[in-house]
Specification:
Blueprint (H helix, E strand, L loop, with lengths): L1 H5 L2 H21 L3 E5 L4 E4 L9 H27 L7 E3 L5 E7 L2 E7 L1 H12 L5 E4 H7 L3 E9 L8 E9 L15 H15 L4 E6 L6 H14 L3 E6 L10 H11 L7 H15 L7 H7 L14 H22 L2 E6 L6 H11 L7 E7 L13 E5 L5 H12 L8 H9 L3 H13 L3 E4 L2 E4 L12 H10 L3 H13 L2 E3 H8 L3 H13 L3 E6 L2 E6 L2 H9 L3 H18 L4 H15 L2 H15 L4 H18 L3 H20 L4 H18 L2 H17 L3 H18 L2 H13 L1 H4 L2 H15 L7 H4 L3 H15 L3 H18 L2 H8 L2 H4 L3 H21 L2 H17 L3 H18 L6 H14 L3 H18 L2 H18 L3 H18 L2 H18 L1
Parallel strand pairs: 3-6, 9-12, 9-13, 10-11, 11-12
Antiparallel strand pairs: 1-2, 4-5, 6-8, 7-8, 14-15, 16-18, 17-18
């Protein structure tokens, strides 16, 4: 008031405009919200309407920032105008009511309640240039900030004196604190310590702590990582948030920001400097990746924009950088990576961390995760993963926990058994009950020394921000609340046409309601021409609005939403199929849910095999509830067939495949559909082939081909014979392969589209690869080159990426010169990249095998050894592409032999012969015997053993028509006799 009186009104307005700018920037910088302007100040909220677990810390950071910024501004005013400006800040934490206050003519969004008033009282009490805190806020931040206890002060409007604190700065020794002692978890801590010991030895570990909400997963993990950090071990963190599951990659960005040391308060240039400093310290060669990382971490550099890449290519580049960071980091330190609340991770983050974890084997890394029982981590199949179940505490442990929190006062004797019974062994609920009893005055004293101040009348947990949001929704007019709840059923984002059709409201009424909801900040408009789209301000608002509907009403609305989306998005139904399926599922319409899940799987297959498999599995689940109609049976056969075919490519459990086959076969027989039976038999053959059961796969392929012939369907016949014609590359005879493939050419009439939709790729194009391999075995190198080139050209034209990767992988075996081998290595490396892009680990094994072959031909034996060992380990670990197992062993033995390590090559060659023989891969067995003969010759094994291998190899080569191998064996025999003489 003194300053306003001393200045001209225009000067005063200019000062206040700059002052409010400083305040607004300081609050929003740390995630706060300006609630209102109060004439010569503001009221700001942290933790509402979007909850923030660290709201008190954010507020303290903002207060420190503002005191500094205002001090600088005041200094400028003093020098320029000779006037003084002082500001005070008050903070309090607790429950508030937030929402629209007033009527439609004068609606004001604000926060109300005693908590707000007490914050205002702290501001009035604060010294100029200082921030004062209440005891509630101090309790939440005392381990992170330096505070000065001001003692109890009398506050107007408060019956009892209030303890106040002055905020001095951040604490240099701040460590995360725990609100209660850890009891009953000695075994679990021991298991975590054992995993850490393994990780420190270079054997990366992944541990999943699983248990119900509040059972103490986070508490256990915090105890462990705090202990690890105290011993100098680096700890990094990322956490899922329940109301942010549809915010892509939020935990990923949190982790990377933690790694690079980026704080919420950092300016963009500061964040860029931190990223660059850390990255270049690890490896200066990563400088070119900085623009991409700046953009990914949402601190882009306008002067150095990232390259324009597809989302898939962008993520590949980022993982390439992370791979380098992981290797360099592991050379320097052990890392404990804590991933909290995995069940709240968005799908993109789950995929990100699934891929990230595959970078860790062989490094000093422990990944510690926690999640609820309904969540299944995608990396649980890895051998280095261990699951640690966390059960509720027993009564004795709860009593020890309570004794540590409450103390031993005799007045607590009757309270202890009541709390034990009420909480059911859930540590979090124990703490919340105690906290509520302290806040409502039932307990008096200090932690560890409480006493019962009055009889216990309530053990409830205090209300949450979610309850506050529910109250806001309940304050809406009935019509507006119905619109908001209908929108919540549609999803976080929704379009006006779909909302109009589902709600049945006239255009004018709907527009008016949306205007009120926007004004009240429940939803916001997003401009996407030509459709008007809306978005909930926060996911939690959507969840609370959705939860206010009765189940029966939800089902009706979900069905209406599904039909509205179908009507209004006719050109994007494949893209929207997954959402439509979800709506039908929640509507209880099982057959429709199955139809749309099947369609969603087809869409997902274009770039995410794992998602396609999950959708097919959901299809089967819904079919089980849909009844045994003919349509349901046919969808069931198709879906199981595709699950078998593509599940085998990604390592699906063999028992699951057996179950799928048995049920699909029964359904096809029930339908009397021979074509369906042929398709499921062919898919089952593929599964056998990917598992390495080569001979069995050929028998199944032939059975499927003959069944297809009975149908007369040209599509089914082409699929049957291209499969049967490809197997003689492994089993022989070569002539049988040509006969089968010639049938495909004849049946298709040269049309590459025949059978393509049903098979997933063109059978005719696939014949090019198989013919090239057969020509190569027969020693017709020019013919093999011609077929391979033709196949590559056709697959590139049709964008059939899986077949392209397969075909590119043959070129190292076609090479005759060093230059051709270099080109073959380049093409095989391209095949590896394609396999990564389409998410096909089985094809990647084949492509890596081709890279290894090229490296051997170029004399890079150490590189070849690493490449082939990686491919072999992946195939065996995931139990996929095992048809390549013997071949990988053969070339690994060659690589070891080329490096001069015949001793280690010997058992590998022995294993190659055994595997090929077991699989019935007689062509491969011939090459394995030849390779073992060479190894035995080099290592000085008995002459008779060498000659026996060569003789057996020659017999197999002649019987299978592998003329190229026959020539090699015959060339080896005279050479060996010459060496012997």
């Amino acid at each position: 008031m003194d300053l306003a009186e001393a200045l001209d009104p225009e000067d005063w307005a200019a000062v206040m405009k700059q002052f409010f700018h400083i305040l607004s920037e300081g609050v929003t910088r740390f995630g706060g919200t300006i609630d209102k302007f109060t004439g010569d100040g503001i009221m700001a909220i942290f933790g509402a309407p979007a909850s923030q677990e660290d709201h008190a810390r954010r507020a303290c950071h903002a207060a420190l920032h503002l005191t500094s910024a205002i001090s600088r501004f005041a200094g400028e005013l003093g020098r320029a105008k000779g006037i003084e400006l002082h500001a005070r800040i008050g903070l309090n934490s607790g429950e508030v009511v937030v929402g629209g206050i007033g009527d439609e003519g004068r609606m004001s969004y604000t926060a109300l309640g005693h908590t707000v008033g007490l914050a205002q009282r702290m501001e009035a009490l604060a010294d100029p240039g200082r921030a004062f805190l209440t005891e509630r806020t101090a309790a939440l931040v005392r381990t992170h900030f330096a505070l000065r206890d001001l003692g109890a002060v009398d506050v107007k409007g408060v019956s009892q004196p209030v303890r106040a604190y002055s905020l001095l700065g951040t604490s240099r020794q701040a460590t995360p604190g725990a609100s209660a002692i850890l009891v009953g978890r000695a075994d679990e801590l021991g298991a975590l310590e054992a995993a850490l010991a393994r990780a420190r030895e270079g054997h990366a570990q992944v541990v999943g702590v699983v248990g119900e909400a509040g059972v103490g997963k986070s508490r256990l993990c915090e105890e462990f990582v705090s202990s690890a950090a105290a011993r100098g071990i680096t700890v990094r963190r990322a956490a899922g948030v329940s109301h942010a599951r549809d915010v892509p990659l939020l935990p990923v960005l949190e982790l990377l920001r933690d790694y690079f040391g980026i704080a919420d308060s950092d300016l963009r240039v500061d964040a860029q400097q931190k990223i660059a400093g850390r990255l270049l310290d690890l490896d200066p060669a990563l400088a070119d990746a900085l623009p991409l990382l700046f953009d990914f971490l949402e601190v882009p550099d306008p002067e150095r924009p990232p390259p324009r890449l597809s989302p898939e290519a962008r993520m590949r580049r980022i993982f390439g950088v992370l791979r380098q960071i992981t290797r360099r980091r592991s050379e320097r330190e052990t890392l404990v990576l804590l991933l909290e609340d995995l069940h709240w991770f968005d799908p993109q983050s789950q995929v990100f961390f699934e891929q990230l974890i595959t970078l860790f084997p062989g490094t000093r890394t422990l990944v510690l995760t926690n999640f609820r029982p309904e969540f299944v981590p995608p990396w649980s199949v890895h051998s280095y993963y261990r699951q640690l179940p966390l059960d509720p505490l027993g009564a004795d442990a709860v009593e020890r926990l309570l004794a540590g929190v409450l103390g031993q006062d005799s007045s607590l004797a009757d309270l202890l058994p009541l709390v034990v019974d009420r909480t059911g062994g859930n540590p979090f609920f124990v703490e919340e009950v105690v906290r509520s009893l302290v806040e409502n005055g039932t307990l008096a004293g200090e932690a560890g020394g409480y006493r019962l101040a009055r009889p216990v009348d309530d053990l409830g947990v205090p209300p949450t921000v979610q309850a506050t949001l529910a109250a806001r929704i309940d304050r809406l007019a009935d019509a507006d609340k119905a619109i908001l709840q209908t929108a919540a059923v549609i999803g976080r984002n929704f379009t006006e046409p779909v909302l109009r059709m589902v709600s049945g409201r006239p255009d004018e009424d709907l527009a008016a309601a949306m205007g009120r909801l926007r004004a009240a900040e429940f939803v916001q408009e997003v401009v996407f021409d030509p459709v008007e789209e809306y978005r909930f301000w926060h996911p939690l608002t959507q969840e609370v609005a959705y939860g206010g509907l009765l189940r029966e009403r939800r089902a009706v609305l979900h069905a209406a939403v599904a039909h509205a989306v179908i009507a209004h998005e006719p050109d994007r139904l494949d893209e929207w199929a997954a959402r439509i399926a979800t709506h039908f599922e929640r509507a209880g319409e099982s057959l429709e849910a199955a139809r749309w899940n099947e369609r969603a799987a087809g869409w997902a297959l274009r770039g995410d095999t794992g998602e396609a498999i999950r959708r097919w599995q959901a299809t089967i689940t819904h079919l089980d509830a849909a009844g045994q109609t003919e349509e349901a049976l046919r969808i069931g056969v198709r879906t199981r067939s595709r699950l078998i075919r593509f599940g085998a490519r990604t390592g699906m459990d063999s028992h699951e495949i057996e179950k799928l086959y048995s049920s699909a076969k029964a359904l096809a027989e029930r339908l009397g559909d021979i074509a369906a039976l042929a398709g499921i038999t062919n898919a089952y053959g593929s599964a056998a082939f990917w598992r390495g059961e080569v001979r069995r796969a050929l028998d199944l392929y032939l059975e499927a081909a003959y069944l297809a012939d009975e149908t007369g369907d040209v599509n089914a016949r082409c699929i049957g014979w291209v499969s049967a014609g490809s197997l003689p590359v492994w089993t022989g005879p070569v002539v049988d392969g040509h006969e089968g493939l010639d049938r495909v050419v004849e049946l298709s009439g040269g049309n590459p589209d025949v059978g393509a939709e049903l098979f997933g790729y063109s059978p005719l194009v696939r014949t090019c690869l198989s013919r090239a391999e057969l020509h190569l075995l027969a020693g017709r190198l020019d013919d093999a080159h011609r077929e391979a080139d033709r196949g590559v050209a056709m697959t590139r034209e049709r964008s059939e990426l899986e077949t392209l990767a397969w075909t590119l992988s043959i070129y190292p075996r076609l090479a005759c010169t060093s230059a051709e081998t270099e080109e073959g290595l380049k093409l095989a490396s391209e095949a590896v990249r394609i396999a990564d892009d389409i998410g096909n680990p089985a094809v990647r094994v084949t492509a890596l095998g081709a890279v290894g072959i090229a490296e051997i031909a170029l004399g890079r034996f150490q590189d070849a050894t690493l490449t082939l060992e990686s491919a072999l380990a992946d195939a065996r670990h995931r139990q996929l592409a095992l048809f390549e197992e013997a071949s990988l062993l053969i070339h690994l033995a060659r690589a070891r032999l080329g490096a001069g390590d015949g001793a280690s090559a010997q058992p590998i060659a022995d294993e190659a012969v055994a595997v090929a023989h077991r699989q019935g891969a007689r062509v491969v067995e011939s090459l394995a015997l030849l390779t073992r003969a060479r190894v035995r010759q080099t290592t000085g094994m008995p002459v008779g053993d060498v000659e026996a291998d060569l003789a057996a190899a020659l017999i197999l080569a002649r019987e299978t028509g592998a003329t190229a191998y026959e020539r090699e064996i015959q060339a080896e025999q005279p050479a060996r006799r010459h060496r012997r003489s």
